[in-house]
Amino acid sequence: MKAVTSYKTLAAPAEGFYKEKGSKFLAFAYPVNDQQAIEQRLQQLRKQYHDARHHCYAWVLQPDGSLYRANDDGEPSHSAGDPILGQIRSLELTYSLVVVVRYFGGTKLGVSGLIRAYKTAAADALGNARIITRQVTQRITLTYDYPNTNQVMKLIDTCHLQIIDQQFDNVCHLTAELPLANRPVFEQKVALLQQTGCQLDLKID
After folding, report:
1. N or C: which end of the chain has fewer CB within 10 A?
2. Looking at the 3D structure of the chain, how many domains does it have?
């Protein structure tokens, strides 16, 4: 299976709204990095909208979207979380959380009505969001002699690495994020430098 080298996610939080038969559906979409961030967002919304009847949600993590969850929070099974998840999936998003807070209006909507309401609210929030593409990266460490600094910096620039940390001395250490898509070319260039006598060691976490 080909490795995933990029993914789509949300640039910033966004909100949406839907109303039907008195029930109000407040939708919130967030970019999230992990399950801890998801739980923090859920706690914030539960506290802010403590008087709402339901806080239904879905989230997707990992570059390939392989980690996900949908929660109906007391609504009929598969009537809330799955429609929300479906909207995230329809845009091929990951590292994303969508929560729909429902204030009951006194009239039951039925399962089909709930599915439509949660789907529409989630779609409204995501429709108001800006979607961006991020590169999947790997953490690498380079160790090299100081006289080779210019060659190493050219390598970093050519392969579009993001420097995380640098330590300059007789022997230098550099930590950076390497775009996964650029790894084959990067490794070839490192090997070429080593063959030409450059004292350079590469470690990929």
Report:
1. N
2. 2
